[in-house]
Amino acid sequence: MADSPYLPGNILSLAGAAADRLLEAGSGDGALLYLYLLKTGGSYQSAAAARALRWEPARAEAALSLLCKLELARAPEAAPAAPAVPEPPEYTSADINRELENETSSFPALVAEVQKRLGKVLSTNDLKCLYTIYDFTGLPAEVILLAVSWTIEEHQRKYGPGRMPRLPQIQREAIRWKERGVDTVEGAEAHLKRLALLRERSTQILALLDIRDRPPVAREKEYITAWVDMGFTDEAIRMAYERTVLKKRSLNWPYMNSILQSWHQKGLHTAEQIAAGDSQRPRRAAPGAGATAPQPAAPGEADRRAREDMERMRALLRQEKEGK
To answer: Which residues contact 321 (CB under 8 A, 6 or more apart)?
Structure first.
């Protein structure tokens, strides 16, 4: 076949060879997805195709797999892999002592301040963690102390007053800050404001989901952060929750997230926008509204009709080829 079997435009052109392959496969889903690809010029995204065809994403993926086997479509290229995050080096006691004895280094003062905030003398392993933050991330001492204070505050909020985090926890938080580009005092202050806002919104959103007796776990925080960044109102989030419970009988975070992502892609972020968007969807006329409801086909009748339709289409294609 040609490099691209798709001819987008007002008139869709179906190659005879493509029609033969679709008829031979006898797959309605494959034919419908092929028409969709013709319409879009071969552009395929699972979520967009499923929306357009009113399918579940898995159904669209199965139809695409068939078209790929028939050589009527190409599997979308995989997204490039994210660059590997470098691992911090293994620092030795000699590395730590050398830095502590360096009169021009800010590390000794950082150690003293962290010990004061944690209320303990740092062990050798603690010092290695702190030096990893200091040397591996290259964060200024002021930013490291802000990360330490935030980690202490979050730990005590979760486990109670007086409880202190371990240095590996502080190290993980500091590395996250570095990965997010939080490497100046000004950036750290802005980041802390955002974290405080997300903490407040997390409590509010958990209440909308009828969860009031605990803070969110890490995965829940990721979902909530995404919803806040998308700009959903409380009413919209509650609507997504109610639809999730209606469908799944309980809170299902991935399913609820898929609802909100779908609304976000359509630009619907408030209850009013969502209600208006739903009202614009085409509705099927109810049986009996101006017409007699069709009677269901007898068992096997639908398959017989489908086979007859296929035979008629094959005959028409043969006649067309013979005429040419």
So the answer is: 16
Q: pLDDT by residue (tens digit) across 252-290?
A: 999 999 999 999 988 999 999 999 876 555 555 444 444
3-state SS, one letter per residue, for the chain = CCCCCCCCCCCCCCCHHHHHHHHHHCCHHHHHHHHHHHHHCCCCCHHHHHHHHCCCHHHHHHHHHHHHHCCCCCCCCCCCCCCCCCCCCCCCHHHHHHHHCCCCCCHHHHHHHHHHHHCCCCCHHHHHHHHHHHHHHCCCHHHHHHHHHHHHHHHHHHHCCCCCCCHHHHHHHHHHHHHCCCCCHHHHHHHHHHHHHHHHHHHHHHHHCCCCCCCCCHHHHHHHHHHHHHCCCHHHHHHHHHHHHHHHCCCCHHHHHHHHHHHHHCCCCCHHHHHHHHHCCCCCCCCCCCCCCCCCCCCCHHHHHHHHHHHHHHHHHHHHHHHC
**Could you give the C-alpha distances from 323 to 23, 314, 318, in angstroms and in order?**
20, 14, 8
Note whether 22 and 70 are within 8 A (CB).
Answer: yes
Q: Is 204:217 a contact under the CB 8 Å cutoff?
A: no
Residues in CB range of 107: below 8 A, 6 or more apart: 99, 100, 131, 134, 141
Measure the CA–CA gap between 197 and 158, rounded to whole angstroms.
Answer: 17
pLDDT above 90 as % of the chain: 51
> pLDDT tens digits, residue range 93-104?
999 999 999 999
